[in-house]
């Protein structure tokens, strides 16, 4: 291994200590410790704004072996990345491969972490750590890369959407049809999915009043943290529901859509983060394998009479999608655009397009 390592540790709020070796930036951070069960896709996961404020534990043991791609742009969006920077507070893995091999790799994972001032910790027993998080639930924690101690920081007390959303509207021009994308921390691949379908995308800040904008459809994006912090977004979506413009909510967007109807949301014990979450379509025996990253869920029993549960999780029975019984309003907790993960449910984007046309 070519990197200079030093002893470091992860300390959880219950006092548990997991020792390892430092790579990436040599600084201490604090955040919410969560785990992802995906086997590939660390460049996409680390740049997913839904991880804002979190220390990410990857359960797959070998990380870094295919390096990091360059910053190529397509349609004015960084290719291979879900935002323009690493969003996690820190990274915890079992085994780090500094010697990478991939035709498109331009740098190592450690170099990339240093570039964005993000600390990494490897050599950790991530199996034992994940078992603890599954049993006790998501916990606050801190990665200490030096002798200096820091206090625990709870990101869920902040309005994280404000940190990751754009500050002013951006227009991605393509076709004549226009979609409003409310950016609560959107993944770039959501934008790419509609540009491929020849739609122009008007990307607006999380609290932007989009009600006077002329558009054929509205998308409420994914994002980090507690959906109840998105008060202005909820207010705008509630007013939009009084019209017939098609609305699609993705992940956090589905929770915001539910809150706009008067339904309730709650925090999951340890969330759904990975590429293998099984979701069953209500009323059928069809199960889809989905890509997910969320720590909150909709309480399906609180949905009003003109809404119904569309999908539910086969593992724990929690809500994975909602749909209006007559109007073109629907949302899913999982990501139809995947990236990384299976694209089994990308047909939902086509369903949204058909509701527009």
Shape: globular
How many strand elements?
A: 23
* Beta-strand residue percentage: 25-35%
User: CATH H level of the largest domain: which superfamily?
Assistant: Class I glutamine amidotransferase (GATase) domain
CATH architecture of the largest domain: 3-Layer(aba) Sandwich
Percentage of residues in helical conformation: 10-25%
Structural Rg: 20 Å
Q: Specify the number of helices.
A: 8
Describe this structure in words.
There is one protein chain. The protein has 357 residues and is of the alpha/beta class. It has 2 domains: 7-156, Carbamoyl-phosphate synthase small subunit, N-terminal domain (Glucose Oxidase, domain 1); 160-356, Class I glutamine amidotransferase (GATase) domain (Rossmann fold, 3-Layer(aba) Sandwich). Helices cover 19% and strands 35% of the residues. It is built from 8 helices and 23 strands. A 10-stranded mixed sheet has the order 14-16-15-17-18-23-22-21-19-20, with helices on both faces. Strand 7 (73-74) and strand 8 form a beta hairpin. Helix 6 packs across helix 7. The model has no long low-confidence stretch (mean pLDDT 95).
């Amino acid at each position: 291994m070519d990197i200079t390592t030093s002893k470091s540790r992860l300390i959880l709020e219950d006092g548990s200590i997991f020792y390892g070796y430092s790579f990436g930036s040599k600084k201490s951070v604090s955040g919410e410790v969560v785990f992802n069960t995906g086997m590939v896709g660390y460049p996409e996961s680390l740049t997913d704004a839904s991880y804002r404020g979190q220390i990410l534990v990857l359960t797959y043991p070998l990380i870094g072996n295919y390096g990091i791609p360059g910053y190529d742009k397509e349609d004015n969006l960084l290719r291979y990345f879900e935002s323009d920077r690493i969003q996690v507070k820190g990274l915890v893995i079992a085994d780090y491969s500094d010697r990478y091999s991939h035709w498109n790799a331009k740098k190592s994972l450690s170099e990339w972490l240093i570039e964005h001032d993000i600390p990494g910790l490897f050599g950790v027993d991530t199996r034992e750590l994940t078992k603890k998080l599954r049993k006790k639930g998501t916990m606050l924690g801190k990665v200490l890369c030096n002798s200096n101690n820091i206090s625990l920081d709870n990101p869920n007390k902040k309005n994280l959407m404000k940190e990751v959303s754009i500050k002013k509207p951006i227009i991605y021009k393509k076709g004549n049809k226009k979609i409003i994308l409310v950016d609560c921390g959107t993944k770039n691949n959501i934008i790419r999915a509609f540009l491929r379908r020849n739609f122009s995308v008007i990307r607006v800040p999380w609290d932007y009043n989009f009600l006077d904008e002329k558009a054929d459809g509205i998308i409420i994006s994914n994002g980090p943290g507690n959906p109840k912090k998105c008060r202005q977004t909820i207010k705008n979506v509630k007013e939009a529901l009084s019209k017939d413009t098609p609305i699609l909510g993705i992940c956090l967007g589905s929770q915001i859509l539910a809150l706009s109807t008067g339904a309730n949301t709650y925090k999951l014990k340890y969330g759904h983060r990975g590429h293998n979450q099984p979701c069953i379509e209500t009323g059928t025996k069809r199960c889809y394998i989905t890509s997910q990253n969320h720590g909150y869920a909709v309480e399906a029993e609180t949905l009003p009479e003109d809404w119904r549960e569309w999908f539910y999780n086969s593992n724990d029975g929690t809500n994975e999608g909602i749909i209006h019984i007559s109007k073109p309003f629907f949302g899913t907790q999982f990501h139809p655009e995947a990236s990384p993960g299976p694209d089994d449910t990308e047909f939902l984007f086509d369903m949204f397009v058909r509701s527009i046309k």
